[in-house]
Structures are given as C-alpha cells and as structure tokens.
Amino acid sequence: MLALRLKNLRKVYDNGFEALRGIELEVEQGDFFALLGPNGAGKSTTIGIIASLVKKTSGTVEVFGYDLDRQWEQAKSCIGLVPQEINFNQFEKVGQIVLNQAGYYGVPSGLARVRAEKWLKQLELWDRRDQVSRRLSGGMKRRLMIARALVHAPKLLILDEPTAGVDIEVRRSMWAFLRRLNQEGTTIILTTHYLEEAEQLCRHVAIIDRGQIIESTSMSALLDKLDSDTFCLDLRQPLMAAPEISGFAVELVEPRALRVEVPRLLGLNTLFAELSAQGIEVIGLRPQEGRLEQLFFQRVRGKKEAA
Amino acid sequence: MRIWPQTLLPPVVTTSLYFLIFGALMGPKIGTVRGVEYIDYIVPGIVLMAVINHSYANVVSSFFSAKFQRHIEEMLIAPMPSWVILAGYVTAGVARGIVIGGIVLLIACLFTEVRFAYPGLAAAMAILTALLFSVAGLINAVFANSFDDISIIPNFILTPLVYLGGVFYSVDMLPSPWARVSLANPILYMIEAFRFGFLGAADVDLASAFFIVGGLILVLGGWAWLLLSHGVGIKH
C-alpha cells in the first residue's frame, strides 16, 4: 500500500513564482524516504501542501489512499509533521503543548496523557514537562516537536530538516530514535541538508529541483550511479606535493594524507599500482563521507547544465 | 485567565476610577438622567463597554499571537473543521468578556445599588455583544500582519464608537443632527438594549437592537468562517 501519492502537484504563488511544476511521487508504507533538493527547490512547499499549510494550485494528494481534498479528516489523521521552524506556543508548558495537540486530533484525555508520557520519556523531555517551552534548548525544542507530532499515533511522519542546528550527539540520538520508530511500522519522510543523514537512514530517495522530481529511486540504486568514489589515504612517509597519477584527482590534505577521487572505471587496484610504482606506501584507507552529496550535486548540476 | 494580572486586574482599576469620578464625585452634580441617578445610568454602559473591549481584545490578541508564533499550524494540520477553530476562539472571547463584565458589575455594587428590571434580557444582550466582538476580533487578527494592526481598530474605531454609543449620556441630550447621527452607531443599540435590562427604559427600539446584533453576528460570523476555510492570512 502507498503511504503517500502525489499526482501532478502544482503550486504557483500569488507573485507568479511557480514553486512546484507537476510533482509525481509515491512512497510505500513502512518506507524511510528522503526528499532532497537545494534551497528553493520546492521541498518545504511540497510538505506544506501535504500538511495542509500551503494551498495547492492543482494536483492531488493521497495519504494511505485517502484523498486530502475529499477525505481530509482521514487523510490528516494519518499525518504527523515536524516542521523546519519552531511552531509551538513559546509561553505554554512542554507537557501541555503535547496534550493540546492530542486534543486537536480528538484523542481522549486519558490516552493522551499515557502517550504524552511515553513520547516525552523516550525523547528525554519528561523531566521538563512543567517547564515553559521557550526555556528549552534548540535540540529539546526539536524533540518536543517530534513528541507533539507522535501523540496522535500517525502512520506517516514527515520531518522537515529535523536535525538542523542541533549538535552531533543529539543528532545521533535522534537518528536512533527515528530508526526505531520506522522499525515499529511508522512510515517516515525526511528532508535534510545533511546528506549523510539521508544516506544513513533512508531506503528510498527523491531529488527535487526547481519544482520537479528529477530522480526517485532506492538509496542503493542511486549510490550505484556514482561514477567515482572519494577515499582518504594515510601514508607512511610524508610528501611535499601530491603525486600525479593519470585518471585520478589527487589532493595532498596533509603531508601524510591524500584525498583521491577514484573513477569506478579505473578502480582501486590501478591506484595502488601507480602509488607503489612511485614508492608511496599506504598504511590506511577510508571512504570519505558524503557520497550522496557528491551524487546529489552531480544530478542537480547535470540538470542545470542540460537546461 | 492564567495571565490574570494582564486580563482581570486592569478593568478592576479603570472601572473603579470611572465609578469614582463619574459616579460618586461628578454624578451628584449632574443630577438625574431619564429619571435615575447618573451613576445608575452609566453602570450598564460601563459594564457593556468592558464586555466589548475584552471579548475583542481576547480573540484579536490570542489569534494573532497564534499566527505570529505559528502555533496556529497545530490546528491547521489537525483534522479540525474551520468552524471548530472559530467556535473555540469565539467561546474564549465570550467567556473573558462575560467574566470581566461580571467583575465590573460587582465593582459597581460597591458604589450604588444595582437593580435589574429584566435580567434575562440584559444577560442575552451581553452574551450576543461578546459574541459579535469576539468574531470581529478574529477577523481583525486574520488580516493583521503586525502588532500595530491589532491595535489600530480598537484604538481608532472601536473606542470612539463605544464612547459615542451612549455609555455616559443619553442621545436625547445631544443636539439635533448628532442625535440622529448616533443612531447609525450599532453599539448604541447594544448599550441601550443592555441598559433596558437594568432600568426598564431605553432610547432605541429593542427589536431593532436584537435584529442589528443578530444580523451582524451572522454576517461577520459567516465571513470569519469563510476566511478560515480559505486559509486567508494563515496559509500560503
């Protein structure tokens, strides 16, 4: 079953700007899905339309088979949203924010209290439940928005840049939390600027650029399209300059460290043969993080050049 | 109500001053108006003025604050029909207006003996007036883009209309053209109908007063519902 289906979704703002130009997208139930794109590509507009915060110009949105126009109550009940910007009452207490949201979804108060306790505990906010929300740190505010989005038990959770501006420790704990949530059956759609985040978490990915989906496939299939990989090499002896190796882009990062872009056509064996021939001994090798980033820029740049 | 020093306390102070200055100090020098002591004449007007101001202020500030902090989005993403959102805000506005009207009435009891000729009629008009100005406050907040926008209408339109609506005087006391001009002010009808509930006499026809208030509630209520349904001012 499809958790989300967008058909020919268009959005033209009052000033004439065409933010979405016929988005077609399908997300399977249970998936962990990344929606990627550069700034202004249309990610937040797409999410805004799905969450009923932005009015679409045309097209259809179906959530678990429910049409958002005709069966809006059922469709909306399936969605939980964690927006990019803080959007709770900064003068309200943490626990009350979660309970209020449950009320908006018609969750009975007893059940709402049980669920609020569950999510606030899991997101390490239970001790702060009586604290006014504006006093929370940035990471806590993001976790509060996740707890609020989950209190009505949505089948589809949409997170718009959930880890923007939070430190690495909080980001890693949020990743673990989201993985667990997905394993328990919640379909998750994620937009992020941290492409490593998408690579770590998501099984499928769509790239949106200038209001259109330019790629929608599995993460592994997308990564297979990389025509090169970048590796960091640790050397036994220091070098004064980067060695010249035909077909490879080599950069001397430190006297004992090289960064090498390895075309898949040539492969690592060719690289090591060339390095050995030049008397350079490699004692360590690791892939550089951000392969998706590399691919992402290839795809977006390729489209722009084609246009 | 949780921020009672901002909501409940100010009307206690200002209305006490009204009753002290206009009622206890100046009232005896003014004498009677339509056969009653001046302080007894102004009590209904001051009570309804508090109802109008606070029902309006409650909704305009809480709805605009929800827009400004974006927590209105909590309701927009939820499966809540527009009329439920409208009813929620308006009910809060009516509650605050009526509670503060009641407090002002209790303060009036410290200065004079308050009597009701038709208590049910006075209560009905107070509730309808609170309803009307709660809806009006919501419409103001829908179109407001800044905190200035939520103070312009109360300061420059609502307050003059209330003060010129017969809170402190009878329209009979005005010179000929102004008495007739005052009849175009809908707040005059509300205050006079409310005053009828206390004194058993009014400057306007009661049926006209209820027709005007009811009609305005239907028109503004329908408009507010349409604005929320179409996401005006709250959706891109």
If you had to describe this structure to a student in words, what would you say it looks like?
- Chain A has 307 residues and is an alpha/beta fold.
- Helix content of chain A is 35%, strand content 29%.
- Chain A has a six-stranded mixed β-sheet, with helices on both faces.
- The longest helix of chain A has 16 residues, at 168-183.
- Chain A is globular and about 75 Å long.
- The mean pLDDT of chain A is 89.
- Helices cover 75% and strands 2% of the residues of chain B.
- Chain B has helices spanning 4-7, 9-25, 27-30, 38-68, 72-77, 82-111, 119-143, 149-163, 176-182, 186-199, 206-229, and strands at 32-33, 36-37.
Report the structural category of chain A.
alpha/beta
Question: Total number of β-strand segments of chain B?
Answer: 2
Number of domains of chain B: 1
Treating each run of at least 4 consecutive H or I residues as one helix, how many helices of chain A?
A: 10
| Main sheet: strand order of chain A | 6-7-8-3-9-10
- How many strands, what sense, and barrel or not for the largest sheet of chain B? 2 strands, antiparallel
Q: What kind of sheet is the major sheet of chain A? A: 6 strands, mixed
Strand content of chain A: 25-35%
